[in-house]
Amino acid sequence: MAKKILMIVGSLRTDSYNQQLAGYAASYMRDRAEVSFLDYRSLPFMDQDIEFPAPEAVAWARQQVLDADGIWIVTAEYNHSYPGHLKNLLDWLSRPLKQGDSRENNAIAGKKVMLSGVAGKSSAAGVLENMKALLPVIFAVPLDGSEGYTYLGGASENGALILSDEMEDRLRAQAEKLLSAINE
Q1: Which pLDDT tens digit goes with each residue over 117-148?
Q2: Residues forming a β-bridge with 118
């Protein structure tokens, strides 16, 4: 049975640079893993008043994460941090699956996570550092090699993300690390 990689893109904009980067990453793994993309647009804001039973969209997103062997988050940087909608998803994923369970019994606990991002001058360094700090708090496992920072300056043409050879090599190395980590 093929291993499953779930791509989570922190930019909801259709064909954003981060969507494109995730597409490149997925293409490097499709011959060795089943790759899918999580559509989490319909998630309500995290609210303990509606936490149990979990709203249908939340239960569905959690199941996608539970079914995945590994996760790759490719995200934009908003004000040196993660987008609010991505944080909302992670908040839902970090909550106990059943009322009264410990926080460690959540959908993302123990999941190996690779990180990448496309941004302007910051090269997404701020958001990725914040993600590396957040993931252990919610019991996920950020992988070494999450240095997938991509500086956008001059790397696009007519809305298309153009990867340099160096960027492509880094992205391929990240794909190999994630595949290796989930096959251990």
Answers
A1: 887 777 777 888 899 999 999 999 999 866 55
A2: 150
